[in-house]
Amino acid sequence: MFETDAADVAQRSSTGSLPPAPRVDELVAAAHARYAPLDEGDVADYIPELAEADPAWFGLALVGVDGRAHTAGDADVAFSIQSISKAFVFALVCDELGHELVHERVGVNNTGLPFNSVIALELNDGSPMNSMVNAGAIATTALVPAADAEDRWRRIRDGLSRFAGRPLDLDDVVHRSESLTNHRNRALARLLQSYGRLDVDPDETVDVYTRQCSLSVTAVDLAIMGATLADGGVNPVTGERVVSAEACRDTLALLASCGLYERSGEWLFEIGMPAKSGVAGGLVAVAPGKGAIGTFSPRLDPAGNSVRGQRACAHLSRSLGLNLFASDPAGPAPAGAAGPIGGTTR
């Protein structure tokens, strides 16, 4: 999936900062040009409205922690955020309720099963396992402190809008389309309720969750949202603190292990960036301390992840040195410096 060839730029260290802006512009444009002709994958059709997407759409954006945006292609085309919303609602809940409660109530381990699996719940005594699969996301949405379902929805929309740095609108057409076909999510919510994992009305919770997935964003929005996580919870465009640095840390750790569902291990091994995808074709990948990539391309692989988006992120991870696990050798220590076990070098 993430193969390279001679056209790839050599792997760089992940330490340091992004190159100068003109170089970033050049590399973003090159990644877009390289993968725009790719026609692998299929547009999601189990939600009728998503099936109407143009398979040729491909937007790419990178926003640094300095707030500067670098874009190519259809970066301003609007689409529904879908499952990418899970990451940012998780961050909001961690910020409100804390690390331990979310860990206990939802979990942080990969299921190894598809994102809408019912079996995963049954195999784990009703534990959703993590907030990036549908059952865990529904449970996480239910944890948003609110007086009622409408208040919960307002708080979620406001929170995600603060991540994006602008008011996000609900795509009513997508919301209606999803509401007519989200039978499995309603079943997951009732199963969570039967295990005592849901303290509020399951149908109302699924409606709020469906609305959060139907918020309209662009690739630039996703990059800004991801860059907010990269910048310790401060939106680099607006300067507003959206969540705490601790909530960002927890969110990025969960994205690293679970963000691309059953492909998460392969993604982390090859690309080395916390990331989250959505079935409308969006993808966000975060380089802590540097910035984030937002992509939009509706052609998906069998796991529900954007094919062009993954390839573009892989290319930029290597060319810009965004892999968390890549580093240059430190070089010889100066004479007299402390050695690896507390001694001095000779």
Characteristic terms for this protein:
alpha+beta; Beta-lactamase; 5-stranded antiparallel β-sheet; two-stranded antiparallel sheet; disordered C terminus
Strand arrangement within the widest β-sheet reads 3-2-8-7-6
Oligomer: single chain
As for the number of domains, it is 1
Task: Using the CA coordinates, give the radius of gyration.
Answer: 20 Å
Distance between the termini: 46 Å
Specify the structural class: alpha+beta
Second-tier CATH architecture: 3-Layer(aba) Sandwich
Number of strands: 9
Q: How much strand content do the residues show?
A: 5-15%
- So how many helices? 13
Going by CATH, the homologous superfamily would be: DD-peptidase/beta-lactamase superfamily
CATH domain topology: Beta-lactamase
Largest sheet properties: 5 strands, antiparallel
Shape type:
globular
Unreliable spans are: 3-13, 123-127, 337-346
List the helices and strands and how they pair.
Blueprint: H1 21-35, E1 42-43, E2 59-64, E3 69-73, E4 79-80, H2 85-97, H3 99-105, H4 119-123, H5 134-143, H6 149-164, H7 172-179, H8 183-194, H9 202-213, E5 216-217, H10 219-230, H11 245-258, H12 264-270, E6 275-277, E7 282-287, E8 291-296, E9 299-300, H13 307-320
Antiparallel strand pairs: 1-9, 2-3, 2-8, 4-5, 6-7, 7-8
Structure commentary:
- This protein is an alpha+beta fold and 346 residues long.
- It is 42% helix and 10% strand.
- It contains 13 helices and 9 strands.
- The chain has a 5-stranded antiparallel sheet, sandwiched between helices. A two-stranded antiparallel sheet has the order 1-9.
- Mean pLDDT is 86; it is low at 3-13, 123-127 and 337-346.
